[in-house]
Amino acid sequence: MRQDQRLLLVLLIAWRALEHQLKSLARISEANRRDLIQLIAPGLLHHEIGALMKTLDAQSSEQAQLLADLVARVQAPPGSALQLAGDYAHTITGLAARLHAITDAFNHLDKRGQVESTDLGRIFSELRLLLTHRLGAVGVDLAVDDAVFAATRLRTDVVLFEQALLNLLNNALDESGTPSPRRIRAYLEKSDAGQLTLALVNNGPPIPVHLDKEIFRRGFTTREHGHGQGLYLARLVAHYLGGELHLIETQALPAGFHAGFRLRVNDDFSAREGLHRAND
Predict the structure, then answer these.
(1) What is the pTM of this model?
(2) In the chain, which end has fewer C-beta atoms inside a 10 angstrom radius, N or C?
(3) Do the Cβ atoms of 241 and 160 come closer than 8 Å?
(4) Can you give the three-state secondary structure of 145-190, one letter per residue?
């Protein structure tokens, strides 16, 4: 082999080695970019939502006060359009605060301490308020044993617990091909000491058994415009609260219901315990 040929061969080998290194660096750079986005995105999202929520909260509170003054001035009767407008303004204020609380909860999951004593009745009253318009628009009857739920007390992170339940209810409301009337039922199952087990069932189409694990995977969805986040986050919260979330077996569903979930959480949850579980 001539000297010039040897030189070209060496240059070719060196070029291929350099190309390989550049590709490796590109892959590392892309992986670092994704890690950086995942690291800072929640904080940025919470910060930006918080800034917008402060403005929305201030404006809706001012609107609610103006409407309250107007109702008093004209002596609008209960149930009038003016009275309802004031109620809606108060609701918007509450929703703005709730949105900020939810983003704060997920952004600071490793240092949460918002544990409070409540009862299931209060929690489901809040959920009904949040879903009032959607339940009415879809025509869903949400059946709850109010007396039992009001007597069932627990200490938990209410913001996260309600969000997990909200995701499960929205999942049931999103089901297409469901017969009319639509029905969702929430009831307590027999629980072990220290744990509360809640079942949420609906008369929508059954969930195929082979998807019992896939439906909880982040990004998995069977809907055309779904995001695959709701059930994933619900299970994440259940785990954080010292419990678990599972699909209910077909044979264990009440008559007339075809799909459902079993949510189990600690009825006396501590934030420190949740932190330990989240770090496992």
Answers:
(1) 0.69
(2) C
(3) yes
(4) CHHHHHCCEEEECHHHHHHHHHHHHHHHHHCCCCCCCEEEEEEEEC
Confidence grade of residue 240 (pLDDT, cut at 50, 70, 90): confident
Q: In terms of Cα–Cα distance, which of 243, 244, 211, 215 is closest to 230?
A: 215
Position of tokens 């995942």? 38
Instruction: Say how many CA atoms lie within 13 Å of 31 toward its Cβ.
Output: 6
What token pair was written down for 185?
A: 């039922």
Secondary structure of residue 257 in the 3-state scheme: coil
Helix (H) or strand (E) holding 152: none
In whole angstroms, give the CA distance from residue 155 to residue 268: 5
Q: List, for residues 127-170, the tens digit of each pLDDT value.
A: 888 888 788 777 788 899 999 999 999 999 888 899 899 999 98
Task: Write down the residue that tokens 């109620």 correspond to.
Answer: 87
Tokens found for residue 226: 């779904």
User: 93-110: per-residue pLDDT in tens?
Assistant: 777 777 777 777 776 666
- What is the pairing mode between strands 116-119 and 153-156? antiparallel
CB 65 within 8 A of CB 86: no
**pLDDT given for residue 128 in this prediction:** 87
Instruction: Judge residue 204's burial from the number of C-beta atoms within 10 Å of its C-beta, 0-12 exposed, 13-18 middle, 19 or more buried.
Output: buried
Q: What CA dihedral angle connects 72, 73, 75 and 76, to 10 degrees?
A: -80
